[in-house]
## 1
Amino acid sequence: MRSRLDACAALRQHRFVMRPLRLKLLGGLVLAAGAAAFLIFTASSDCTTVTGSNEVVVNVSAMRPGSARPFCYTDDTGKRLRFVLARGVDGNVRSVFDACRECFAFHRGYRVVGGELICRVCGNHYPIDRMTEGKASCVPVSLPHKDDSGIVRIKTADLKAGDALF
């Protein structure tokens, strides 16, 4: 009888030792899956593809004040260069690369949410009217453009000059 009690006690002790190990493994798997889902969700960049040989032409006449849209241009080497066009509440169009001077090495860019650009790496928020000012060393990289009554023209040479950001 005693040996049977000893066997049951040993089994209970084994179960208590194994339970924390299983919980740690399960917790690690859940944490890894959550981190992977977060990175996939925050890294996705839905952009409108634009083309052009010497310049890219984008009609922004329907863009509301306080809004922004991401765009993509693929250069001759196949590299996708991303940029953001935004119309401030003052009606002026602003343009920046979808990259920050500090965080560009991570190739994550910005999210456009509620009239702001939000850096996907450091989380800094940039209101559209002040998106070229930046905070500390995290500053959206400006992109030259011309606005002709709602038609924005960007030289492809200016886009290609920013290829190191991507």
## 2
Amino acid sequence: MQTKYKLVDSSFPGKEVSEWYIFLFPSIIVLVTLSLINFYSPPNWKTPLVFLVLGFVLFDASYCFTRTLYSDWVSKKHIVGFVLMSETSIEVHQNDRELIIDNPSIRGMNLNSNYIRGKKYKRGMRHNGLCTLVINPLETDEKVLKILIENDTQYEVLKSFLKILYKEKINIKETIF
């Protein structure tokens, strides 16, 4: 199975913003909205229930929107090419150049992954989907690739690619943050 990933500029920072900063702006929006509603509505027993439901909806909506505004979110201007990954090789297409790295030529690999773009892993924050691959081929210098994982299919292909490399006894270091 072959899947296409977007190739991100190697100078793009891979560090994700801290979690408290992500919740700050949506929390302020929810607090201001709920206080305005409380001020202008007549008091009754349904008011707390409405506040609770409205608060969750507003928080989730504002969180989804504001997450895309942070500096670690990849935009179109950071895409410089694409990567085709299959079970036997990695093909890098960038600036009308093509580089093919076959599995037998890989000596080692470091993988720093940030799950799937826009999705939560278990109960955590929404991730930016940035994955950094540092590939150490046998004959040449190491290659650094930053790819964007945008859906479940891409994530599953990456996992199956790593399983094949593990079976071939290739030294792999994985970090998922």
## 3
Amino acid sequence: MTRSPTSCGAAGGRRDPAGRAHPPHGPPALAHHRGAAAVGARTAGDPRRRRGTALLALVLLTLVAAPAATAAALASRQPTEYAAVVELIHQPEDNSTVEGVDREMATHSVLLQRRPLVQEVAADAGRPADELSDDLSVEAVDGSSVLRVQLVDTDPERARETLDDLVDRYLASADRLAVTSDIGRLRVLAPSDVLDEPVGPDPVRAGAAGLLLGIFLAGLLLALLRLRRGRGRTT
């Protein structure tokens, strides 16, 4: 009996149309081999990959949360700060132009914060001059001839008294200066007052700033890790 060229030989192989024998490697055997290799790779690699991913997530979460929590905690421990405010109205010279009025108000704003004046007031208030200078602010109210002067202190009554002292000293010198220069005069629009709500500290704002810092650090870490992996693949 004549065997077909593609019939199996005694060894269990098969022959192609030319009569060449090939070992058995049917699709089921090959699929089984690849599946076993894939399962082995997943078994060996996945646990370490999962641990690495979990560790990275923990580090990133710490980088984001720690600065925010620390900043908020530190801010909440700071003493409460109060602001005393007084408004001064500018009385320009008769011949002053619009541009001249703006310049005169800017001049008064600068002179109100001059170092010699701040030092004298700080000495009487028992506060460091640098600290008082940082807590003092002068701003022009938009669309008006009013200067708003604000002083921050942990003692609301001391804030008001110190501000009154500073304004009184300045108005006395400004009146003398107005005689020889065209900067106009200032008058108190209303007595100084302490704001109802404290102006500091603000744990929410401090926490938000810390959160932004944490996000920046986390992004920087991710960028460095990606750069390191990219270099590892090229070597």
